């Protein structure tokens, strides 16, 4: 009597089967992939991605990935395209058409439209003899791999390969365009990603609490109270930050405090952060030292402070 197949057994089989298919896809990539990327790079307009059913869901995700990594893209539903949305595809665009079989009826009008108006079309399908592949300018053929359902009817392995292929195209384009974290932040101002990519410069305060080493502590305490940061920076005659006075410094020197100068009390060589560093990095530094403020410098080589950052500002912005 054979042991019953468990849910965990099924899950592992599905994932192994899809992983095997991705290895086949990796090995199958060739000159056609490079040609597809070059066609998209050459397009003056947008990349129009389309597909029906499960391929349509994958097409939407590929569209979003392209758009968020520097390649203007738009999803067009093939059924809606036949009822007026073909007008969303224009001169200068390039079409990326997804269909595992390559014979999806709803794609016929999109294919005909691209052929009529000479719009470059990249086809993705598993059948090299299909109508889509015969009609397209660049063919990306998915390798033969069984669907993970075991009956060959549920799009699983095929959609995983198509999604990975779309990611590969998007990242190849992104690398070619030298798309940076700064570019990514511009397109992702909201949510967790936007917060993680926020620069220190965007959160720092430029009205800084600063005194010189010769400043009497009575005046230094007044600056601490007035600015409200709980600290004061100490600068030399050239404006270079040479020290900082915190609550801890005040407690350590409480005896005769008002008879001393800022230079007598300060902690030398305070930790700082560059203005163009990620706020996430600043939070990590503050956590490491168990402090709540960092003075900010314009560049790594410039010791003059240009701002001050509080950990509360980072937390309010969603940086953790």
UniProtKB/TrEMBL annotation:
UniProt xrefs under Gene3D superfamilies: CBS-domain (3.10.580.10), Glucose-6-phosphate isomerase like protein, domain 1 (3.40.50.10490)
A GO molecular-function descriptor: metal ion binding
Superkingdom of source: Bacteria
Spans through the membrane: none
Gene Ontology terms describing biological process: carbohydrate derivative metabolic process; carbohydrate metabolic process
CBS domain residues: 204-260, 266-320
Chain sites annotated for binding Zn(2+): 77
Pfam families according to UniProt: CBS (PF00571), SIS (PF01380)
Record site: Catalytically relevant: 54, 106, 147, 188
Residue span(s) of domain SIS: 36-179
Record keywords: CBS domain, Isomerase, Metal-binding, Repeat, Zinc
Family: Belongs to the SIS family. GutQ/KpsF subfamily.
Protein name per UniProt: Arabinose-5-phosphate isomerase
């Amino acid at each position: 009597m054979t042991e019953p197949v468990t849910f965990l057994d099924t899950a592992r089989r599905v994932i192994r089967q899809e992983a095997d298919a991705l290895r086949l896809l990796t090995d199958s990539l060739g000159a056609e992939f490079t040609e597809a990327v070059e066609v998209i790079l050459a397009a003056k307009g947008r990349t129009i991605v389309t597909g029906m059913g499960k391929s349509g869901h994958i097409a939407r995700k590929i569209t979003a990935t392209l758009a968020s990594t520097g390649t203007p893209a738009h999803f067009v539903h093939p059924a809606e395209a036949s009822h007026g949305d073909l007008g969303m595809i224009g001169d200068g665009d390039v079409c990326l058409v997804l269909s595992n079989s390559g014979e999806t009826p709803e794609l016929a009008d999109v294919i005909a439209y691209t052929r009529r108006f000479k719009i470059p079309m990249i086809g993705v399908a598993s059948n090299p003899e299909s109508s889509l592949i015969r009609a397209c300018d660049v063919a990306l053929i998915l390798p033969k791999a069984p669907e993970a359902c075991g009956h060959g009817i549920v799009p699983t392995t095929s959609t995983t390969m198509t999604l990975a292929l779309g990611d590969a195209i998007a990242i190849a384009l992104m690398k070619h365009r030298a798309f940076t974290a700064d570019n990514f932040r511009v397109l992702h101002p909201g949510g967790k990603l936007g917060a993680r990519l926020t620069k220190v410069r965007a959160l720092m305060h430029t009205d800084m609490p600063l005194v010189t080493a010769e400043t009497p502590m009575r005046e230094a305490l007044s600056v601490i109270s007035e600015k409200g940061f709980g600290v004061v920076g100490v600068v030399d005659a050239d404006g270079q930050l040479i020290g900082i006075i915190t609550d801890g410094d005040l407690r350590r020197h409480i005896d005769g405090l008002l008879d001393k100068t800022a230079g007598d009390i300060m902690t030398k060589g305070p930790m700082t952060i560059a203005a163009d560093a990620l706020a996430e990095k600043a939070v990590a530094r503050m956590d490491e030292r168990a402090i709540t403020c960092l003075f900010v410098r314009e560049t790594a080589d410039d010791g003059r402070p240009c701002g001050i950052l509080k950990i509360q500002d980072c937390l309010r912005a969603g940086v953790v």
